[in-house]
Amino acid sequence: MTGQHERAVAGDLTGKVVLAAGATRGAGRAMAVELGRAGALVYVTGRTTRERVSEVGRPTETIEQTAELVTAAGGTGIAVPTDHLEPAQVKALVERIDREQGRLDVLVNGLWGGDHLLEFDTKLWDLDLAGGLRMFRLGVDSHIITGHFALPLLIRRPGGLVVEITDGTAAFNRTYRGNLCFDLAKNAPHRIAFGLAAELEEYGGTAVSLTPGFLRSEAMLEHFGVTEEKWRDAVAKEPHFAIAESPALIARAVRALAADPDRGRWSGQSLSSGQLAKEYDFTDTDGSRPDCFRYFEEVVFGGKAETAADYR
Question: Is 43 helix (H, G, I), strand (E, B) or coil?
């Protein structure tokens, strides 16, 4: 499908208030900006600012930049430095949103920042224990802490949406992810969304887990030594990168969910950007519609004699 006409997603979110938790870079930034493009007011949180760099160690991306991009896209971006592992900071953040807006309509929980701790294909007994436990803190505890403080504001009005961002659909993650701590950390958001769907039902709220496919984040492009414009040059080094998607795809998926008055039909489910692109009829920025998880299931794991191009 590459080269076909790009199809963006519609949906007016003017007047809606969003907390984009973990929106410094990558999918988190793209989702915040797309929600701003829809007219939303977006509180952008993270640990890397123009004055301080988090343990991720990437000073080139900051929450202030993300907030500015949200505003430039047509929304209102407000950067609030927040360590979501510190309950007092999250409590103060939510109190500020309540004080300034009196409402919260969408919580996009994209908190992570643990890729630098990954040790793939390493047995549990050989893992760096401190690093493994830190992944739990970053990928699970932060989500629980944020939900604990943010949800009382979100349920004040019916129709609230919680999007738990993770890596891999629930079905894909039945395949072991090569690191026990990472595997558990990336399966947890599915259960968080499943549980929250039950807890939010009486308040008219919706909770889902959502994953991108093979994401062309800033860090991934840097890893392969390519730019977004030249991303296909990396396919020679990593053939499966041919199914990669830009952060815009998951961003458009979140906008589509937030603007869908019938989104409750998804509550409690594990969703992917490729699945929702088909459901809501939008594409990536190059006009393609990559279906990463079907490609991996049928071709990589299933041995089907097709290429990534057949899944775009």
Answer: strand
